[in-house]
Specification:
Largest interface: A-B, 34 and 28 residues
Radius of gyration of chain B: 37 Å
Strand content of chain B: 25-35%
Pfam families (chain B): eIF2A, RRM_1
Helix content of chain B: 10-25%
Distance between the termini of chain B: 124 Å
Strand content of chain A: over 45%
Largest sheet of chain A: 4 strands, antiparallel
Helix content of chain A: under 10%
Protein name (chain B): Eukaryotic translation initiation factor 3 subunit B
Family (chain B): Belongs to the eIF-3 subunit B family.
GO molecular function (chain B): RNA binding; translation initiation factor activity; translation initiation factor binding
Number of strands of chain B: 43
Shape of chain B: extended
InterPro entries (chain B): EIF3B, eIF3B_RRM, Nucleotide-bd_a/b_plait_sf, RBD_domain_sf, RRM_dom, TIF_beta_prop-like, WD40/YVTN_repeat-like_dom_sf
Largest sheet of chain B: 5 strands, antiparallel
Oligomer: heterodimer
Radius of gyration of chain A: 18 Å
């Protein structure tokens, strides 16, 4: 089917997130307003106004009532999904990069960038049921990794936090004590900045994408490397189909080199790989800039991609897709 | 034993060896703890790298022995002689005096700024007559020690017992008749088999930092040459790549094998000590097997920068061009108004003099015979000229005068049967040029020449290429980006000896021609600006076999048998680096991506030992021979699909194990998760979505009824 082109952002996209029911799609971009769309027809529902910098990431609660966003304006904000009202603002001394709600939505993990003399950090915040009782204090702050932490997510039963970033190392932390439990080794691990990380639907494994032109699939409990997917481009975004054994990688060269190369040289395609055989199945073209964000609808029947070009492209799969055999 | 000593020492000093970061330890300069580096012996016979040594000092012997009063006068004389040649260092002249007699000892030391100057001084003043009884004997200071060591009595040299060498042609005996190629990417150099049946390369040998700039196969494929700061080395052998010989040549930049791989020419260019001087050029010709320098050439870069099409700005490589054929008999180089032809037997000029040709611009050897083709441009009233000269007789076989010529290019057919001279001529207004070809039939009596002009005379010639071993040639002509490609043959049906056109392909995206080494097939390639368009064309049938694209491709190379083609994207581009291997008819076999990809070269094969008659016979009965190989191919493909299936099954099983493990853990954690979600039983709906169509048929009740049936008619 023809993809639905969603115009609404004025700057490159940074992150995409579906709610659990798969009827809403939240998009973040370098402009200051996260936007919510109907995941079915791409109609714009509304925006969340209040940030004063690029918005890097967001997460939506299981009941689709709360949205949390992380922004370069050094805040992470809680929103009422329905009204667009800002409920709370967590203030940091440096740009906030990634957010993730825990199972049960009572906790959120927020990472902040290194800034001035501050080093990067992982903050765990308690999310109050009643927004009026919300406080800004962190339950736990983890410091240690060098450079930016591009993504931090919760492990099974909120017992661990998995982080990955510029130092190309994946780390598993104890979410109670902040102790480092596991670390990916040099041999198996990525060689360059890890740009993206996404968990499987059941949270049992996760996929990381890196500028070293590969994506790797890991067991979330033991940090065992299970699969490696090799591509021709630096990987900016990764996603896993909840329905079929497919993974999608998006990327492209640096934004600075885009104008100097042929659009074909850019390969701004979303590449589909067979999750098990690690072989490329196909690609979805369309963006005229690198792909920065990818997300699968929880029903596995559509996915969306967000590019450096400022567009979100919403793709509903054709019937043929479900019959791919290799 | 050494280990034990180290441990003992460490424990005595209280050092924990496990804590030591060995990489951080830097040995003081010149200290090696008695462990000889592998490169050491090579450096010892470095003639030029004397920055720290005494290479810039000469010893002048047979000076008059003078008393104290005349010391200064003698010193003045010597200084005068030697400062003409180069700059003597401050305090660089030292004449020892016998403390007893206060007379000089009859020799002195002179230190120059550079070893080159010292070399020159030695060459120029050795044997200099100061007067009748004082003839200078000049030596390099470094050599003195060597001479001192010469034993007084002659002893017969020890002869080493003969040890049979490895079979250097082992790779040709590959049971699957595969070809090898070498690739360089990042710091690795790797030799691989092209295993086209398995659709992947098969590793042979890999080594990091094997070479410091590039690698090069010898023309018959026996050796692989690597380039290092201290010189070149060749590798080869039956099992792995062993170093067979090293050729010391500091800062070597370029190398060239003679066609029969008997000799290796190395080239280096050195910064002059005086910035106004031109670069110094050093060329050595080595015997490949013994590693001995057969002859060296030194001079300023200007002397070597004459002639050749690229000769205006720098030295055109190779400086020495070898005559065709495998016997490596002659080599030649172009100079100002001369062509110097050397004989490899004596390494001296034929007849002790060069061939004088005023204003000669370019020359090239026939690939098979000792015949030189040379081009002299138009000067004043003298027309431009192309002539063929037989070596060693230096007799002119054929000559052709050409008028209003702007440029000339010479193309030999690989068997030396034909020669094509592409001539760019000015139009009458002299504002533009047009191109024609002069075609020489070398093997026919009196060497007839034919003129070929394209149908559209104004077409620009973009590329020209002879069919290897064949009688056809291809020309790309017309305007970019969509020029035409024409094929011509030198033979016609009636053997009338006229060149005739076979066909013209209109508006092709091509700017380069790559004939298969076996002829018949050609790739019309659009490289550079055309993004790597490839058209595989069969010239026998005059039909396109396939069109393809290797995006951004920079290089194309056929394997020596003409069965496969490699196209590669080298690191001139940042992206897409790697190579593709195609079959001769344009089917992509496999594709390998490598970052920082520099080079791919096929290992050449020596010419076939079969006679032409035998080859023809094989070609005739190809069906009979091919049966065996087809069966083998089939076996391999069966085996492959079998292996593939097994591999898939293994991966699938492994994956299923993971999934079931995850499922188990997920269920185990179910209750805890429910707690975290405030009692919401979430697992059921959280199960992975499954795309299943379920048809349910339920039988509720069966009753039988007899219905009475009557027609009601209105």
């Amino acid at each position: 089917m023809r993809p639905i082109l969603m115009k609404g952002h004025e700057r490159p996209l940074t992150f995409l997130k579906y709610n659990r029911d798969g009827d809403l799609l939240f998009s973040c971009a370098k402009d200051h307003t996260p936007t919510v769309w109907f995941a079915d027809n791409g109609e714009r529902l509304g925006t969340y106004r209040g940030h004063n910098g690029a918005v890097w990431s967001c997460d939506v609660s299981r009941d689709s009532l709360r949205l949390v966003t992380a922004s370069a304006d050094q805040t992470a904000k809680l929103w009422n999904v329905q009204t667009g009202a800002q409920l709370f603002s967590f203030n940091f001394g440096s740009p906030a990069r990634s957010v993730d709600f825990s199972v049960g939505d009572k906790l959120a993990v927020i990472t902040t960038d290194p800034f001035m003399e501050l080093s990067s950090a992982i903050h765990v915040k308690r999310i109050a049921k009643d927004p009026s009782e919300q406080i800004g204090e962190s339950v736990l702050v983890i410091k240690g990794p060098q450079g930016r932490i591009n993504r931090a997510v919760w492990g099974p039963l909120n017992k661990t936090i998995i982080s990955a970033g510029e130092d190309a190392v994946i780390r598993i932390w104890d979410s109670e004590t902040g102790k480092l439990l596991e670390e990916s080794d040099k041999e198996n691990g990525h060689r360059k900045t890890i740009t993206s990380l996404c968990k499987s639907a059941d949270g049992s494994h996760f996929l990381t994408g890196s500028l070293d032109k590969s994506a790797k699939l890991w067991d979330i409990r033991s940090l065992t490397l299970i699969k490696t997917y090799v591509t021709e481009r630096p990987v900016n975004a990764v996603a896993m189909s909840p329905l079929l054994d497919h993974v999608v990688l998006g990327g492209g060269q640096d934004a600075s080199a885009v104008t100097t190369t042929d659009h074909r040289a850019g390969k701004f395609e979303a590449k589909f790989f067979d999750k098990i055989l690690q072989e490329e199945i196909g690609g979805v073209k369309g963006h005229f800039g690198p792909i920065n964000a990818l997300a699968f609808n929880p029903d596995g029947k559509s996915f969306s991609s967000g590019g450096e070009d400022g567009y979100v492209r919403l793709h509903h799969f054709d019937a043929d897709y479900f019959n791919i055999k290799i | 034993m050494a280990d034990v000593l180290i441990e003992e020492m460490a424990s005595r000093l209280g050092i924990d060896l496990n804590q030591v970061d060995w990489d951080s330890i830097k040995l003081p300069k010149g200290e090696d703890f008695g462990i000889k580096s592998d490169d050491e012996d090579l450096r010892e016979d470095d003639p030029l790298e004397f920055e720290e040594g005494f290479g810039n000092i000469i010893v002048v012997d047979n000076l008059p022995q003078v008393p104290k009063e005349k010391f200064e006068k003698l010193e003045g004389v010597i200084r005068k002689i030697y400062s003409q040649i180069g700059v003597i260092k401050e305090d660089g002249l030292w004449m020892p005096v016998d403390p007893a007699t206060e007379k000089t000892l009859g020799y002195c030391f002179i230190e120059y700024n550079t070893p080159q100057e010292a070399q020159l001084a030695r060459e120029k003043t050795n044997g200099y007559k100061l007067d009748k009884s004082h003839i200078f004997s000049v030596n390099m200071f470094d050599d003195i020690e060597k001479f001192m060591k010469v034993p007084d009595e002659w002893a017969p040299p020890e002869s080493n017992p003969y040890t049979p060498g490895e079979n250097l042609q082992q790779w040709l005996t590959d049971a699957k008749a595969r070809d090898q190629f070498v690739i360089r990417s990042a710091s690795d150099t790797e030799v691989l088999w092209n295993d086209a049946r398995h659709l992947k390369p098969d590793p042979v040998y890999k080594r990091a930092y094997w070479t410091e700039s590039f690698v090069q196969w010898s023309p018959l494929g026996t050796y692989l040459a690597t380039i290092h700061r201290q010189g070149a080395a060749v590798w080869g052998g039956a099992s792995a790549f062993n170093r067979l010989m090293r050729y010391a040549h500091p800062m070597v930049k370029l190398i060239d094998f003679s066609p029969g791989e008997k000799y290796l020419v190395t080239y280096s260019s050195h910064e002059p000590s005086n910035p106004r001087d031109t670069h110094m050029v050093v060329l050595n010709i080595f015997d490949v097997r013994t590693g001995k320098v057969m002859r060296d050439f030194k001079g300023s870069a200007d002397e070597f920068a004459v002639g050749g099409t690229g000769g205006v700005t720098g030295v055109s490589w190779p400086v020495f061009r070898w005559a065709g054929g495998r016997d490596d008999k002659y080599f030649a180089r172009i100079g100002k108004n001369v062509i110097s032809v050397y004989e490899a037997e004596t390494f001296s000029l034929i007849d002790k003099k060069s061939i004088k040709v005023e204003n000669v611009m370019d020359f090239s050897w026939s690939p098979t015979d000792p015949i030189l083709a040379l081009f002299v441009p138009e000067i004043g009233n003298q027309p431009a000229r192309v002539s063929l000269i037989q070596i060693p007789s230096k007799e002119e076989l054929r000559q052709k005068n050409l008028f209003s010529v702007s440029d000339c290019k010479i193309y030999w057919q690989s068997n030396g049967e034909y020669l094509s001279v592409q001539v760019d001529r000015y139009t009458k207004t002299k504002k533009s040029t047009y191109t024609g070809f002069e075609l020489f039939r070398i093997k026919e009596r009196d060497i007839p020449i034919e003129v070929l002009e394209l149908e559209n005379k104004n077409d620009k010639i973009i590329a020209f290429a002879w069919e290897p071993k064949g009688h056809r040639f291809a020309v790309i002509h017309g305007e970019n980006p969509r020029p035409d490609v024409s094929f011509y043959t030198m033979r016609t049906t009636h053997n009338t000896g006229r060149v005739s056109k076979l066909t013209t392909l209109k508006s092709k995206q091509a700017n380069a021609l790559y004939w298969s080494p076996a002829g018949r097939y050609i790739i019309l390639a659009g490289l550079k600006g055309l993004n790597g368009q490839l058209e595989f064309y069969n010239v026998d049938e005059l039909e396109t076999m396939a069109t393809a694209e290797h995006f951004m491709a920079t290089d194309i190379e056929w394997d020596p048998t003409g069965r496969y083609v490699a196209t590669s994207v080298t690191s001139v581009h940042e992206m897409e680096n790697g190579f593709n291997i195609w079959s001769f008819n344009g089917k992509l076999l496999y594709r390998i991506l490598k970052d920082h990809f520099f080079q791919l070269s096929w290992r050449p094969r020596p010419p076939s030992l079969l006679s032409p008659e035998k080859e023809e016979e094989i070609a005739k009965n190809l069906k009979k021979y091919s049966k065996k190989y087809e069966a083998e191919d089939q076996d391999v493909s069966m085996l492959l699909s079998e292996q593939d299936r097994e591999k898939r099954k293994m991966l699938k099983d492994e994956w299923d194990r993971w999934v079931s493990e995850w499922k188990r853990l997920h269920e185990e954690e179910g209750s805890e998760r429910q707690m975290l979600r405030d009692g919401e039983a979430s697992d059921q709906e959280e199960e992975e979505y499954e795309d299943k169509e379920v048809e349910v048929e339920e039988l509720l009740d069966v009753t039988e009824e007899v219905i009475s049936f009557d027609y009601e008619q209105d």
